[in-house]
Amino acid sequence: MSAKISPVETYKTMLDTALSSFNEEAIKFLGEDAKLYLSKAYTTGAKMWIRALKDKYGLEINKNVKTPKEAVESYIQLGIEGGMFSGKDDFVVEDIKEGCAVRIKVVKCPHVFACKMVRKDMELSAAQIPCIRMACFKGGVEYLLNIKCGYRVYQVEEDYCEGVIFSLEEECQDKVWEFIHC
Questions:
Q1: At a CB cut-off of 8 Å and minimum separation 6, what does 130 contact?
Q2: 40 to each of 9, 20, 34, 36, 46, how far by Cα in Å?
Q3: E strand segments, 20-138
Q4: Residue of 13, 70, 76, 162 with fewest CB within 10 Å of its CB?
């Protein structure tokens, strides 16, 4: 007989499979519009999570940010305080494109299994994946800076993913062109 799985691990597996099936069915039903829909859903989820942590636990996100990088770092700090992330070492955050974009490497991404399942089952490239973590970071940036953003995933490996969140504001259009039209 195999070892008993802990309730926490069972919950994580259930969450991964639920998110994978949600993503996969959205892709089947919506086609190319699925990533936009899922991005909006995860963005809304990020905003609701920020509000829930404040309302339920009194945890507030630092709103004194001016760049996408600062917004992502503030979201990560709230995630650490709220028990979602174990520490800042789980992320590499780099400002690019003169404050109009931020590159993020998520080390030990808890959702990489879900992304890989959808990528394999649906035969998608990394850029086509509706990434849970990047979309939530995007939501945090939009909430904190009150701007519209997009995101692209570049790599999904065994235990990490890497992508970029970029501003869609007019003053950044020339700087982030390569992300919008890739």
A1: 23, 26, 27, 34, 35, 38, 39, 42, 118
A2: 28, 16, 10, 6, 10
A3: 91-96, 101-107
A4: 13
Q: Where are the beta strands (DSSP E) in 17-126?
A: 91-96, 101-107
Q: What is the residue whose two structure tokens read 């494109």?
A: 97
Can you tell me the distance from the alpha carbon of 148 to that of 167, in angstroms, rounded to the nearest whole number?
Answer: 6
Per-residue pLDDT tens for 69-120?
Answer: 999 999 999 999 998 888 999 999 999 988 899 999 998 777 777 777 777 8
Cβ neighbours of residue 32 under 8 Å, at least 6 residues apart?
Answer: none
Place of tokens 């995007």: 138
Asked if residue 163 lies in contact with residue 152, where contact means CB atoms within 8 angstroms, the answer is: yes
Please state whether 3 falls in left (phi above 0), alpha (psi between -120 and 50) or beta: beta
Rounded average pLDDT over 22-33? 85
